[in-house]
Write a structure and sequence with these properties.
By secondary structure, the protein is of the alpha+beta class. The protein is globular. It has two helices and nine strands; from the N terminus they run H-E-H-E-E-E-E-E-E-E-E. It has an eight-stranded antiparallel β-barrel. Strand 6 and strand 7 form a beta hairpin. It has one domain.
């Protein structure tokens, strides 16, 4: 009987993750929309602020590299990736998004050197979009 209980305990240890351990979830379009819609998220890269994106209804977005210049765009799902089209670019920017205990992480799909962004809640800034150039 003791041997059976020990065997069951070992099976449980192998098949069940330790408590508190959570795996990242790959987000499809619906999951990405549920998580982001109505939010403004700041992203970091290698420990420094990278950019900010506001997620609007209808899969529309506004992106900025934190420089005051903002680009309107939209996103769509394609083959498990979330792809963005912005007003000044004709080529889509496609990413895979994962949701983990610390928020979103994103990996750029078409880059041979991995570019991975992460949701950064420690950036104490707000999204600023300056108007078009005036008097130029």
């Amino acid at each position: 009987m003791m041997r059976l209980a020990l065997s069951l305990l070992m099976i449980g240890l192998v098949t069940c993750p330790p408590s508190g351990a959570t795996a990242d979830t790959l987000l499809n379009g619906d999951g990405f929309d549920r998580y982001t819609r109505g939010k403004t998220l700041f992203y970091g890269f290698d420990g420094v602020p990278y950019g900010v994106e506001r997620y609007l209804p209808g899969r529309r977005v506004i992106w900025s590299f934190l420089d005051g210049e903002c680009q309107d765009g939209e996103w769509y799902e394609d083959a498990g990736q979330i792809c963005f089209l912005y007003q000044d670019r004709s080529d889509p920017q496609c990413w895979t998004f994962h949701l983990g205990p610390d928020g979103l992480s994103a990996r750029f799909a078409d880059d041979p050197t991995p570019t991975e962004l992460y949701e950064d809640t420690d950036i104490n800034e707000r999204m600023i979009c300056h108007g078009p150039d005036v008097g130029v």
